[in-house]
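Example record

Each entry pairs one chain with its bound ligand, alpha-D-galactopyranose.
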Amino acid sequence: TEYALTNGYCTVKILNYGAIIRSFCVQTEDGLKEIVLHYDSAIDYLNDEYYLGATVGRVCGRIENASFVLDGKTYILDKNDGENCLHGGYNGFNSKFFSAKTVGDSLIMTLFSKNGEGGFPGDITFSVTFSLVNKGLKIKYHAESTENTPFNVTNHTYFNFGDTFNTEVFIDADMVTPVKANLIPEGFLNVENTPFDFRKFKKIGESIDSDNEIIKICNGYDINYVLNGKNFRKVAAAKHDKLQINVYTDMPAMQFYTGNFLPNNPQKGLKRRGGFCFETQRFPNAVNNSEYPSVIVKKGKVFDSETIFEVVRTEY
Ligand code: GLA
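Structure tokens for the complex follow.
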């Protein structure tokens, strides 16, 4: 089932499968403009391997060796990315049917994830609420668990202004978490004098193929930014062709991913690097790495978080 939210300026379409953002259209001088990658058919969503527009959980990003120890117990997860667990494993939120209801102007999608699902402890009751704010989309996440459990949710929309290379990006972050060959982050890296510095608007294409070791491992940008500041704030932006996306979140981090794994498949509307993701999140693999802030949701406690993707028209 597809739901549409509209306010005359933007229209966002959301599927009950994966709580997927299937379409994000904005009214421009030249008519409605689609700014996200999407598929035409439902089957393509069922077969999708690239998380197009999906809500991603229980734990987004990679968990090294698909295992972790919590409260003295070892948990074994799905190895769906080499030796690692990616985006919650084979039965992640992206592949679930959500219950949907509308309350006022909001669309609330709810999911129950059973204790042991994907190998994770605790029953999780999760909801994601979509609503339109003046010029964009607000995404609110809520989760509760019956056990201590790692939890990290994101949205995997690929924004596409028609030309990823010439899209200019800003990310308010002095540091990234550099990755090892298996794409697992370790430590911290200051972005100064690296291709990862987006503290001023810079074209994605400028350093996407630089011979920086980490860029080569990732085949472009696929890295977790340690966002400056705390609480709800503007953290990133992207602009091209008179449109600008602004990203606001209360999350501490954001994966900037330039679709390096997307295949060249014109029939499905896909192209390598044909879009880019601003995945607001908590730190990847934090459950195995004590130098990163904890992602454990404690038994009986709640997780609440909010991200806004705002789209404004610019003149430049
Ligand atoms: C995330 C990861 C990427 C890739 C995509 C899905 O963005 O960081 O490495 O796995 O998801 O294709």
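The longest strand covers residues 302-313.
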